[in-house]
Amino acid sequence: MLKRELRVILVSLIVSFILTAAKFAAYFMTHSVAILSDALESIINVIAGGFACYSIYLAGQPKDANHPYGHGKVEFFSIGFEGAMIFIAGLLILFKAVQYFITPRVLHEMVNGLWVVGATTIANLFLGLYLLRSGKQLSSITISGNGQHIMTDVYSSVGLMVALAIIQFTGWNWLDPVVSVLMGSLILVKGYQLMRRSISGLMDETDMKTIDRIIDILVASRRENWIDVHNMRVQQYGNNYHMDCHVTLPYYLSLHEAHEEMKCIEQLVNKGFEGSEVEFFIHMDPCIPSCCHYCLKEACPVRGDAFRGKIDWTRANVLPNRKHG
């Protein structure tokens, strides 16, 4: 899988380098600040692609004594770095737009520039879709983040093409820096979103979608011995996850029987996260009399209270560190 991830990001790096060169050629041809804005953003594609190559390589290294959870968190650094670069590019674009408002420049060969931008936009569209699909298949936040950035580039380039066409047919050269301001603002927002995602990952912020996914897996295969689940926590390390939780079991199960129940949970969740590896730390709690009224085990030899209804496992009762009852 590591080789495939590296191959995907290398394709992105090579294509981005070629497209960046083409966009700068279009800028020198037209002197359009809007095209320059597009080219500056593409430089970030190249820089981020290079950093992503290293982060994917490092994330694929095996666990060691100094990194018992592996090296996967470097991917959060990768998307944070990419977000910071995008944010800086947005600021540079806004700065150049203000300069062009103050000192307008004559535009040249707009038709040729429009053709070049159109060709790079189509190439970027195919690249972005390829990266998003690959990122989803490989569960790689680095590749997915790179794909999201490329797609943002596509959207801004489409807007740029529309603006260039309007300028060509109307002669409204003042529209050039206006479009650049809009593009710069869009890029700033995208950079902030990637940095926000990076910080949340590094700070182990709970991913509620992942929690819901695990809950759905457990609910779909719920066994009568699984009386209660609580204190669930999930951390992501690149393509891997670390999950810990408390599971309440009948107190009279043997150690071997309890171990088999935990093993079943591990197999179910790993199957549901196919393509990733989920590492577990499950704490087994013995049941107590207050659990009887929601225990699903019909043939329980020690039941002390009548069954009154099961507890539905949701975020509200799976995440807190308390046994129900």
UniProtKB/TrEMBL annotation:
InterPro entries in UniProt: Cation_efflux, Cation_efflux_CTD, Cation_efflux_CTD_sf, Cation_efflux_TM, Cation_efflux_TMD_sf, CDF_Transporter
Primary localization: membrane
Membrane topology: Multi-pass membrane protein
Keywords: Membrane, Transmembrane, Transmembrane helix, Transport
The keyword Membrane appears for this protein: yes
Family: Belongs to the cation diffusion facilitator (CDF) transporter (TC 2.A.4) family.
Coiled coil: none
Domain Cation efflux protein cytoplasmic: 210-287
Name of the protein: Cation diffusion facilitator family transporter
Stretches that traverse the bilayer: 7-30, 42-60, 81-102, 114-132, 153-172
Keyword Transmembrane helix: yes
Gene3D superfamilies: Cation efflux protein transmembrane domain, Cation efflux protein, cytoplasmic domain
Pfam families: Cation_efflux, ZT_dimer
Secretion signal, residue range per the UniProt entry: none
Cation efflux protein transmembrane domain ranges (all copies): 9-203
SUPFAM superfamilies: Cation efflux protein cytoplasmic domain-like (SSF160240), Cation efflux protein transmembrane domain-like (SSF161111)
Compartments where found: Membrane
